[in-house]
Amino acid sequence: MPRITSRDNPRLASAARLIASSRERRKTARCVLEGEHLVVAYCRRIGPPEVLIVAETAQERPDVRTLIAKIPGGRTLIVADAAWSALGPVPAAAGVLAVVPTPQPPAHVPADFCLLIEDVQDPGNVGSMLRSAAAAGVAQVFLSSGCAFAWSPKVLRAGQGAHFHLEIHEDVDLPAWARAYRGRTIATAVATGESIWRTDLTGAVALAIGNEGGGLSAALRGAADAIATIPMPGRFESLNAAAAAAVCLFECARQRRRGAE
């Protein structure tokens, strides 16, 4: 395994550019996974990364040694601590990075359980929504062009490996998609909708979640088959977008399980 001591090493510099630049990630169709958990999740679902980058001090950890042993020879770089700082804002404690091709979803046949995310720009919220979607059994996620890039480091960290259990489609015209969907699209709103507990979420369903400031666009609400609201008996009537998505997704999961019994 090559040991890298120079911050100018080409492969190290390439990884640093991917970490720093969304444009670079989109142009090269590559992304960077930070931390052993994400790298292991990727390996289990997809296969070995193109490049595994390991901090010199981290290679002594038993779990990291096990990971290194599974990566084909020549793909692993051991980086001296002094050179690790070339990677920019990556926490030194992460110890492990991987450069991987951004997974490309196949031309899709719409699934029976989908999540639509419209104009949610906070990376943490997008990642948390993906994590909840994967846990609830969603098959496909569709993001509008106004969303945070799904494969940015912050979204990947918040997703905790959920990306590799979903088909993720970006830059989607969500109103047009909803109009063409063979199932029912359920829009969410802070008020004015039917209680989510009384809304029929069985069968083929796509749940639409908007941003915290403006909610869903009028176009997407107009394309939906129903509008649902989370009842809030407390005095504070606002959930953040990721929390609202989790509540609605798991109500979908509950009804779908009940319908299958």
What is the rounded Rg?
20 Å
Report, as a whole number of angstroms, the end-to-end distance.
Answer: 53 Å
Q: What is the CATH superfamily label of the largest domain?
A: SPOUT methyltransferase, trefoil knot domain
Biggest sheet descriptor: 7 strands, parallel
| CATH fold-level topology of the largest domain | Alpha/beta knot
| Count of the domains | 2
List the defining traits of the structure above.
five-stranded mixed beta sheet, Alpha/beta knot, alpha/beta, 261 residues, single chain, 60s Ribosomal Protein L30, Chain: A, elongated, 2 domains, 10 helices
Question: What do these coordinates show?
Answer:
With 261 residues, the protein is α/β, with parallel strands linked by helices. It has two domains: 3-101, Ribosomal protein L30/S12 (60s Ribosomal Protein L30, Chain: A); 113-260, SPOUT methyltransferase, trefoil knot domain (Alpha/beta knot, 3-Layer(aba) Sandwich), CATH 3.40.1280. 36% of the residues lie in helices and 19% in strands. It is built from ten helices and twelve strands. It has helices spanning 10-20, 22-28, 36-45, 62-69, 81-84, 123-136, 153-159, 174-180, 218-223, 241-260; strands at residues 3-4, 30-34, 51-55, 76-79, 96-101, 113-117, 140-143, 167-169, 184-188, 194-195, 205-209, 226-229. The strands form two sheets. It has a seven-stranded parallel beta sheet with strand order 8-7-6-11-9-12-10, with helices on both faces. Strands 1-4-3-5-2 form a five-stranded mixed beta sheet, with helices on both faces. α7 links the parallel β7 (140-143) and β8 (167-169). α1 (10-20) crosses α2 (22-28), α6 (123-136) packs parallel to α7 (153-159) and α6 packs parallel to α10. The longest helix is centred in the last third of the chain and has 20 residues, at 241-260. The radius of gyration is 20 Å and the shape is elongated.
